[in-house]
Amino acid sequence: MAGEMLVSSKHRRHLIRRGAVVAFLAISLSGCGFATAQSPLNPAGPVAQIQAGLITSSFWIMMIVSAVVFTALVVAVIRFRARPGQRGLPPQTEGNNRVEFLWTVTPAIILALMMIGTIKESFVLGKIYPASQALQVDVTGHQFWWEFQYPSANITTANELHIPVGEKVELVLTSADVMHSFWVPRLGGKTDLIPGRTNYMWIEASQPGIYHGQCAEFCGTGHADMRITVDAEPPARYAAWVQSMSHPVSIPPKSNTLAYQGYLDFAAAGCSSCHTIAGTNYNGAVGPNLTDLSDRLMIAANLIPNTLANREAWIHDPQAVKPGALMPNLHLPMNEVRAIATYLGTLR
C-alpha cells in the first residue's frame, strides 16, 4: 500500500512538472508571431524600426535580469533548503553592504541606460517637419471614419491614406468629435487625436505595400470598426494618384443609364447633403468625401471590400453592416440602391 502511494506521488509530481513546462512554453510562444499585418515587431519604416528597437532591447534586458534573479532564487532554494534531521533555524545573517550595494546600483545603471536610449530616440520621433521637408497630411478623426486632407495638392479623401515610399509624411492630427488615436503599427506608434488640440507625428514607408491600422482609443460603439489603410506607393505611382484626384471622373455619361440615374438619385435621396464628390455640386461636409471611391480597396472605414454587392448592402442598411455607424438608413427602394451603388463604382 505504501509502495503504491509512493509511485502515485511520484507520478503526480512528474505530471505537474511536465504540465508546468508545457504551460511555460505555450505562454512564451504566444507572443512570437512577428509577421502579422498589424505587428509593431515587423517594422516597415524608420519610425517603426526605432520603436521596435526600443521594444526588443528592453525585452532582452528584462530577460537577462529575470534569468539572473531566477537563477539566484533557484540556487538559494536548493543550497539552503532544510536538510533531513535539521532542527531549529539555521544561522541568521543580518545585513551585507556589498550585496545591498550591488542590487541597488546595478538596476539603477540598467534603468539609466534604458532611459538615455529612450530619451535620445524620443527627440527623433517627436520632431515636427515643416512642409518644405515632408509631405503634410491633415488627419481628422470622426465617429467612425478618417478624413485625410493634402493641403499642397488641394485633395481631400477618406479612410485610405496614400503616401510616397521613401518620403517623410508629417501627420497633423485633430478630432471633430471625441478622442481618437491614429495607429498603423508597421509604420509607427499611436498618437492621440484630441478635440480642440493639434498633435503631430511623422511616418515613412521604406517599401511599397498596403499597411493596416485602426483607431486605438475607445471612441464609441463603432470604435472597433474604425480602421485605417495606408497605401505606400512608388513616387511615380503616387504622382499619378495625385494627378487623377486633381481631375476626377465624377459624372457618368447619360449613355450609362443606370450609373447616370444613380448620379441623380444621389442628390434626390439626400446623400449630397452629407458627402462631397469633386467635380459635381455635391458638397456635403458631414460624411466621408467620396471622390475616388471606386479606387478604394475597402468601404465603411475599411471594414468590407469595395464591391457592388457590399456598396448596396451599406446603402440599404448601414447599421446592419457596421453597428454604431452614424449614416442613417434612408429606406430607399432597391432599384435606387442599385443605381447609387453603381454610380459610386464609377468615381475615380
Structure, briefly:
The chain has 348 residues and is α+β, with helices and mostly antiparallel strands.
Text of the CATH class of the domain at 135-246: Mainly Beta
Average pLDDT score? 90
What is the CATH superfamily label of the domain at 135-246? Answer: Cupredoxins -  blue copper proteins
Residues in β-strands, percent? 15-25%
Low-confidence stretches: none
Kindly list the characteristics that best describe this protein.
about 40% helix, 8 helices, Immunoglobulin-like, about 350 residues, 5-stranded mixed beta sheet, about 20% strand, alpha+beta, 14 strands
What do you see in this structure?
The chain has about 350 residues and is of the alpha+beta class. Among the domains are: about 110 residues, Cupredoxins -  blue copper proteins (Immunoglobulin-like, Sandwich); about 90 residues, Immunoglobulin-like. It contains 8 helices and 14 strands. The strands form 4 sheets. Strands 3-2-1-5-8 form a 5-stranded mixed β-sheet. Strand 2 and strand 3 form a beta hairpin. Helix 2 runs antiparallel to helix 3, helix 5 crosses helix 8 and helix 6 crosses helix 8. The mean pLDDT is about 90.
Topology:
Blueprint: H1 2-29, H2 46-79, H3 97-125, E1 135-142, E2 145-150, E3 155-158, E4 160-164, E5 169-175, E6 180-184, E7 188-193, E8 199-203, E9 209-215, E10 227-233, H4 235-246, H5 257-268, E11 276-277, E12 282-283, E13 298-299, E14 304-305, H6 308-316, H7 318-321, H8 334-344
Parallel strand pairs: 1-5, 4-10
Antiparallel strand pairs: 1-2, 2-3, 5-8, 6-7, 6-9, 9-10, 11-12, 13-14
